[in-house]
Predict the 3D structure of the following.
Amino acid sequence: MALLSVEELSFAYRDREVLRGITFSVDAGEVLGLVGPNGCGKTTLIRCADGMLSPHNGRVMFKGKELGTMHRREVARAMAYVPQSTGNRTSSTVFETVLMGRRPYLNWTVSCADEDKVAEALRLLDLEGLALRKVGELSGGERQRVMIARALVQETGVVLLDEPTSNLDVCHQMGVMEVLRGLAEEKGLAIVIALHDLNLAATYCHRLLVLSAGSIYSYGAPEEVLTEEMLGSVYGIEAVVKRDLPAPYVVPIRPGRVREGV
Amino acid sequence: MNRRCLLALALLLIVAVPASASAMDGTPGDVDGDRVLTSAEYASAALTYLDAAYMGGAGDLTRTDIRDAAWVSAHWDGRPCEITDSSGRTTTLYRPLRRVVTFSGESLETLRSLGFDMEKVVAVDKYSHGKKTFFPECQGKANVGSIWSPDMEQVLILRPDAVFLYATISTATCDDIQKRLEASSPGIRVFRFDCFKPATYPGEIRTIASAVGQKERGEEFAAFYESTMNRIRDGAAGIPDDERVRVYFEYWFDYTTVAAGAGYNEKTRLAGGVNPFATGTAEYPVVDPEAIIVTDPEVVVKLAGQGLAVGGYAGHDIAAFDAIRAGMLERPGWSSISAVKDDRVYVIHSDILGGAQHFIGTAYLAKWFYPDRFADLDPHAVHQRYLTGFQGIDFDLASEGTFVYP
Amino acid sequence: MEQNVIIQKGYSRLKKTRALFIGGLLAALVILIGLAVTLGSADFTVGESYLAILAGLFPGTFTAPGMAGIIVWDYRLHRVLFAVVAGFGLAVAGCVMQGILRNPLASPFTLGIASAATTGASIAIVLGAGVAGGEFLVIGNAFLFALLAALAIYGMARYRGIGSETMVLAGIAVMYLFSAVTSLLQYVGSAEELRAVVFWTFGSVDKSTWPKLAIVSLVLACTIPYLLYRAWDLNALAEGDEVAASLGVPVERSMMVMMMIASLITAVIICFTGTIGFIGLVAPHITRMAIGGDFRTLLPASGLVGALLLLSADSIARSVLAPQVLPVGIVTAFLGVPFFIYLFLHRRSA
């Protein structure tokens, strides 16, 4: 059974329809990449999947249970969310920010077990040296890793990330994706990542979901999904897809016609 | 026993140590509790005291008690004094006042006019404390702040038997002070008197006079006050409406006049003047300069004092008054106003128009408005008599202070 | 594993620092209370003041000299305790508001609650109209209008979606509305009434009484334990609305409840004291700089800092121009100056 499954999800902000008929599922151990141009609805989809927004149609299910029927705390133990922007907190230490991820399990005091888990997550994301530094003093990339660490200590089955690598250098980009893929496979997590970098997505995701103007353009393995037609009609660019490496990679050539409806 | 004996006994007890005044319910010596101290009761009390003090007998009256009893006999006819203050509350006094605190300068001034022994005033408000020329004897007294910022601890520590507050202004604040005082010191008497309103002042003079045992002096002072004010009222009553003088009364601040509930407006009207700008509800409305020229007042009066601090009791400064007046005459368009053409522009100080001396200022106003009708009114003499005869301060109007100009 | 131990040691050191900080604040507060009780224009010795306190608590064993008992118990003691309690409450309210609005400049005052209370007081003073009568006219109005402002903000935010930006905007709108009404009333009123209104806005602890102290203490005793209980949610909200939601915090409901509680605490204090500013702004800031943002310690510590600040300000207000007593709100306003200069100099570009 899929850990996360979305059926016929539709969402509108007031009168503007943002998502239409989205259906997909993510199994344990799978990494799903959400790709698409700016404004196609990736962030909205992730928010709906986490239960932050209520769709007017369709449903989101965790282990077969509909999200709407679950208690808030249950949802928090089931799904973790890593936001796109890194927020403004300056006076909290890294340790405490990551500790926040334990909130669905905490009563009031923090146990040793909680502290251990935080330390473990910090180690995984190469943040140990920064544990007692204030978050405001870190670089953008370091802050992003702190957010991911927080999601990890939440010990959920599903992790939703909204462009977690946009501020990272190439070394850390790969490092984070490695960790995520490793966690998915070791711990059986279902991971959904919204990504801009198509090549990164192709390398590390098991499947890709391409969104275009609120609906699914294509859904499947990177080899199937990343085609020159897709790049032309969804992104409006002319590109070449090379297939001589383990994962396909996209080489943009030149911008093409402007897409309508943007 | 005849009066002479009583007097002798009373005189025996002249020297006494002032003791803290605790208001016991009941006149000291009133053994049968019928609220009348008869001569017999007094004599008996005095003898018991002497016996106890000098002959080793038993008795619980102190020297102060006997002095108070003598005083009550002499001034209140042996009966307790019922005082109804200006807030309508009635208090009963069984003893003379020995330690008084005044939060209002007007009450203080009135007490002095009535010949109250200023030694018995133990503390004054900060404004009176600061008036070195007018209240020289208050410099050494304790300072209890003001109504808005009272030093309650200071008041309590002085153990007063009476505190004077205003009756109709700052009522909420005064009520609060009264409540706190009465809660902390149950014996304390709080008197609410304004002592600056023409309508209520004569009554207040007489009430306070009886409270401090100065009925004759009180009557004399009230008569002095009433003679001036009644002269003004009667003189102004007979004036037909179309002959009434149009007055532009300017407050301390330029182009601000008085209206509605302001005291200065009331006094202008008392003196028979008409204030065409007194419309609306604001107390001190700002006037459009053009409106002044259009209305063409026949007399212009400018107020000096607090907001325009020159002259008054604080200093002899005719030049400053002249400068103020000259400044007004130079205002654009003013040369066409009747008041300027007839040379009827005056400056007056709030010291004699507000507060307890308002009758002096009102007299000046009346004389300026209708010099013929009030030819026999001499405000200067009234002022000097007030200062020398009633206030008892050494202040020669000819050489000290500036109150009116020209 | 070693790294784990180092990290955990570091965290427990942090916790210890916090505990020490709070302990130190408590000690300082007790000392300051002891000092403040001896201040006043009646000249007793320090010993006489304490004797008077003891005599009030144990009337059989101790007797107070002269008027000392009355002055200390009727004028000084409840005033000092009221300053402590009011400072605590205002600081906690400010702390909560800064947390849920994620704005370090948020305070009950920037949200218009104080302006509304002033309007209520002005209506009572100038128009003589109000919900309660007699001596509670001004107090009742001030309290009612403060809560009205909170409800207005709630209503506006509900309509546009509850989030920190909408609440701040709504708060500013409310503040301007009520300020305008107050100005109008001040213009219409007589000189006396104007003076009374202005005096009210200065803020002072002068009018404190034992019953008022009891009321405020009761409100704090009911609300602060609840706030502490929800400290983790406040921590989560500080991370951002979305993150907090994904961590299982009922964001909208929490924000509204916290807003209401902070408004209630503020209202019940300033209806008695008038508008005392800056405590709600400065105390949480100072505390946060010292011990970080975990609300489990930030709340009580801010409260203690606020209590210390207000009591110090009141003690200064009573002594600097003795025998005159300055309204304490004026002294706290001066507090704001070095604070903002500090912020101005130490601001790193965000």
Remarks:
- Chain C has a mean pLDDT of 87.
- The CA atoms of residues 171 and 322 of chain C lie 38 Å apart.
- The interface with chain B takes residues 40-43, 67, 70-71, 74-76, 125, 135, 138, 188, 190-192, 195-196, 199, 207, 323-325 of chain C (CB under 8 Å).
